[in-house]
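Deliverable D5.2: sample structural annotation.
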Amino acid sequence: MTHYSMLDLCPVVEGQGPKDAFRNALELAQLAERQDFRRYWLAEHHNMIGIASAATSVLIGHIAAGTERIRVGAGGIMLPNHAPLQIAEQFGTLETLFPGRIDLGVGRAPGTDGATAAALRQHLNADVNRFPEDVEELLGYFQPERPGQQVRAVPGAGLDVPVWILGSSLYGAGMAAEFGLPYAFASHFAPADLLAAIALYRRDFKPSIHLAKPYVMAGFNVIAADTDAEAEFLASSMQQAFVRLYTGKPGKFSPPQEGYFQSLPVNVQSTLNQVLGCSAIGSANTVWQKLNDFLARTQVDEILITGSTFSHTARLHSFEIAGDVLKSLR
């Protein structure tokens, strides 16, 4: 049985600010809980005025406090931006406050531009090439305290905080397999290596104290509405956001534009089709077909649904439709 979960980028739309985004995020998480999504994840980004989840662990606490059952976590924490001990303490604190409900996904990308990454890391000896060592150190802090251990995570030691490896290439798949950890692939924006990464991860997986057999989750965009035409209109906001991001001009989430995709140059349309290749935009029937095809093709253990619209009401409705469709596919 395939499980389904939600990824929220905590978008900030034009005319609003982070406070509005935080209120919307909680409403979305509460909807996810009612719709039986297994987990609700937030992603770490920095220096992006259109994404409000920079202080990811703080926001996770806010969401967990406003929900009751759903697992809440990071998809993910960009580990080279942080000392592993600090992340262990933060997520140990979250797990202590909300036992059995906290996930920690970690990645090695900066989640920002080069100058901001340098500012984040100015007091660290961090290097993306040290990512395996950082993950190993992080995992160690969650193990039971050892006699004579000088540095410990308080709280954190001995707590069951599942750690996931996130990635969009074969590197992350191989590392997750080597460590025997669950693996989440970012196919919602980088689908090119999805099938190869899943195959490598499953082939090379080494059972560990953390996980007995491979467990893979993949990202998938859904913009759903009552009709295909309405969903395609709503999706133009997401398309605008990707075009601005890939042209180095990220901003707040813009209102939808009729005919936006068709107005783009052919090469930009081609890039969007590639980047958003793992997407379902349409009515419930269209979303059902796209999701069913994706699950049949990948055989993932869990699917991580994401998707942003300018209208918060439309976004809630989109995830309501997605939740109903996913229930029918289980």
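Annotation notes: Strands lie at 3-8, 39-42, 71-78, 102-107, 163-167, 183-185, 216-224, 279-282, 302-306. The first strand starts at residue 3 and ends at 8.
The annotation will be released with the project's public dataset once the embargo ends.
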